[in-house]
UniProtKB/TrEMBL annotation:
GO terms for cellular component: cytoplasm. Residues 40-163 form the 16S/18S rRNA aminocarboxypropyltransferase Tsr3 C-terminal domain. Signal peptide: none annotated. Residues 3-29 form the RNase L inhibitor RLI-like possible metal-binding domain. This is 16S rRNA aminocarboxypropyltransferase. It catalyses: an N(1)-methylpseudouridine in rRNA + S-adenosyl-L-methionine = N(1)-methyl-N(3)-[(3S)-3-amino-3-carboxypropyl]pseudouridine in rRNA + S-methyl-5'-thioadenosine + H(+). It comes from Natronococcus pandeyae. GO terms for molecular function: rRNA small subunit aminocarboxypropyltransferase activity; S-adenosyl-L-methionine binding. GO terms for biological process: enzyme-directed rRNA pseudouridine synthesis. Keywords: Cytoplasm, Ribosome biogenesis, rRNA processing, S-adenosyl-L-methionine, Transferase.
Amino acid sequence: MECHVYYEGDDDPKKCTARRLEKFDKAILYRRMAQVPYGVVLNPHAEQALSPADADESLETVVALDCSWESAEEASFRMNGVHRALPFLVAANPVNYGRPFQLTTVEALAAALCIFGDQDAAEDLLEPFRWGETFLTLNEEPLRRYSECADSSEVVAVQEDYLADEESA
């Protein structure tokens, strides 16, 4: 599965995971939305959760949006494709460590690859980041459970377990 990123360029270039992915030839960046290929778009505003079933739609592309969380409005995600939201996961990046749903671009792409059952590709994608392995370790159980689901409704049911645990913590 290929990783593609629509890059808005409003993050600190030194902390931008999408630019680092491009530097290591692990993702293709697009600066114009019209250039972004059709695929599974990781969109936190999507109505359906990402599931292994989305990999079966003969889509060879996962697309992420790289922008600051402040500007990640619904309008930012007007790309062609099958829009899916990532389920509950915890960030391992130094800026948002331990915060649920506050993933960097590389964490989001790696999570999608894990949910699609491609752990090796996720590890390869995270390799240039010193905290990359930590992301997989922190989220090992939920990523495994999500990857075992048949569809979006099962992913949401698993996510509800984690959200209930988060509320009681």
